[in-house]
Amino acid sequence: MTNNLNPIKVEVGHRCIGEGEPVYVIAEIGVNHNGSLETAKQLIAGAKMAGSDAVKFQKRTPELCVPREHWQVERDTPWGRMTYIDYRRRIEFGLAEYRQIDRYCRELGIDWTASCWDEPSIDFIDQFEPPFYKIASASVTDLPLLRKIRTTGRPVILSTGMSTIEEIDTAVATLDFWNDKGEPHLLIAHSTSTYPCTLAELNLNMIRTLKARYPQAPIGYSGHETGLSPTFAAVAIGACFIERHITLDRAMWGTDQAASVEIMGFEHLVSNIRDIEKAVGDGIKKVYESELRPRAKLRRLCA
Predict the structure, then answer these.
(1) 112 CB neighbour count, 10 Å cutoff
(2) Cβ atoms of residues 216 and 1 within 8 Å
(3) CA gap 109, 54 in Å, rounded
(4) What is the pLDDT of residues 251-291, one digit of tens each?
(5) For the whole prediction, is pTM greater than 0.85?
(6) Nearest Cα residue to 199 out of 233, 170, 230
(7) Full set of structural domains in the chain with CATH
(8) Which of 11, 59, 162, 237 fits a disulfide with 114 by CB distance 3.0 to 4.6 angstroms?
(9) Which of 163, 38, 48, 145 is closest to 101 using CA atoms?
């Protein structure tokens, strides 16, 4: 168990995430690259410029993640009309692309990882030694996947969108708060899985609820709303890490673009998070040196 005097912190790469540490900011690229490595690199560079700590992709094996009955369903795409399975293959990066992504992120000095939607994808991404894994809200009840991720020994962020508290409890018990070395490795993100999400369904007070229920894990926020204010509120009430989708243009084709933040907006996001960290303080009442002169003057007048 932890307490306010000795909060749990999880080591992620060269950083620690937890109470008293700077908020760790993740720019979720996901599939907003639309299968273009050049777009992915632009998003990585934009996230780094904005001050993000990490970028995150999504990795799937389409043949495992797309239900068989959906394979031949046709849809319109930027590349013409094609079956859904061909579309999923079209936007999925392979080894050549991820090698370049890994090299580029190392050159820029920014962490990168992926949410893996199937077990072969974990094996694929693990060859790049990511600093942590993210479990998507859709995978909360996929216990074999959770067990597989735990075997990597890497820190894990569990997203909790579209989940009951009982489902979250089961996922947390499966992952455990501690790795096999007895080190804290679990982080939990409050989220609502609607893209974009209305203000009425963000329920940011769940951050406080998760903090009280799981004091052994740093709690963060993965947001899918339009605008930045709710994310600032999440930081103000104690989110230790933040994840928001990043895009070159919210009007681009793709299901996640509308709930994403453009690069200049991401720069404002990170900058304001750093301001909020300074403003929140430690909660200990004190008289600041800058108050001493007005205190001496005004208290004398009121005496």
Answers:
(1) 25
(2) yes
(3) 9
(4) 998 888 989 999 999 999 999 999 999 999 888 999 999 98
(5) yes
(6) 230
(7) 9-302 (3.20.20.70)
(8) 59
(9) 38
